[in-house]
């Protein structure tokens, strides 16, 4: 391999690495459950260096994991799975109770305070490239509202 070709390959790889979005996850947590409870929510702050979409998640703690949104319409709270959640470059998107969150459905076992739940978050960049971020979310008490509980 010639030096010029090698240099071009290294430069190309460096460009691709630099173009990959960096997603930062802050304060990940999961709400604890009671023994018969089959679902819970995971919450955290997400910030990306470039525009990406959170398009999925998985966890060994649940058989089904979905990205959800909650909304209130005519005084009725509604929750539904969504195909993706945009993370605009440089802005923190909060996954929090009463809003967007990761839903853990058909739990394998109860989630007890102090345990950690591994969650894999899948993101897609504007160019279609996928990336995964591994998170360890601390299980908090069933009544926890997170750090945003006192914000209005």
Task: Provide a descriptive summary of the structure in words.
By secondary structure, this protein is mainly beta. The chain has one domain: Sandwich (Immunoglobulin-like). It is 11% helix and 52% strand. It contains 1 helix and 10 strands; from the N terminus they run H-E-E-E-E-E-E-E-E-E-E. Strands 1, 2, 3, 4, 5, 6, 7, 8, 9 and 10 form a 10-stranded mixed sheet that branches. Strand 1 and strand 2 form a beta hairpin. The longest helix has 17 residues. 22% of the residues are buried.
Short recap of the structure:
This protein is mainly beta. It has one helix and ten strands; from the N terminus they run αββββββββββ. 11% of the residues lie in helices and 52% in strands.
CATH homologous superfamily label: PCu(A)C copper chaperone
* Number of helices, where a helix is a run of at least 4 consecutive DSSP H or I residues: 1
**What's the overall average pLDDT, rounded?**
86
Q: Quick one: CATH class?
A: Mainly Beta
Enumerate the spans where pLDDT stays under 50 for 5 or more consecutive residues: 5-18, 148-152
Order of helices and strands: HEEEEEEEEEE
Number of domains: 1
Helical amount: 10-25%
Beta fraction of the residues?
A: over 45%
Q: Kindly, what is the distance between the CA atoms of the first and last residues, rounded to a whole number of angstroms?
A: 62 Å
Radius of gyration: 18 Å
CATH topology: Immunoglobulin-like
The main sheet comes to: 10 strands, mixed
Q: What structural class do helix, strand and pairing data support?
A: mainly beta
Total strands = 10
CATH architecture: Sandwich
């Amino acid at each position: 391999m010639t030096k010029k070709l090698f240099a071009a390959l290294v430069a190309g790889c460096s460009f691709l690495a630099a173009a990959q979005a960096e997603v930062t996850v802050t304060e990940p947590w999961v709400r604890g459950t009671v023994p018969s409870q089959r679902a819970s929510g995971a919450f955290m702050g997400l910030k990306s260096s470039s525009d990406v979409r959170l398009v999925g998640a998985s966890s060994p703690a649940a058989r089904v994991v979905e990205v959800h949104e909650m909304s209130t319409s005519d005084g009725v709270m509604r929750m539904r799975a969504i195909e993706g959640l945009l993370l605009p470059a440089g802005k923190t998107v909060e996954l929090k109770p009463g809003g967007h969150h990761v839903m853990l459905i058909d739990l394998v076992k109860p989630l007890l305070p102090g345990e950690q739940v591994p969650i894999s978050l899948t993101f897609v960049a504007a160019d279609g490239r996928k990336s995964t971020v591994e998170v360890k979310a601390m299980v908090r008490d069933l009544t926890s509202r997170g750090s945003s509980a006192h914000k209005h």
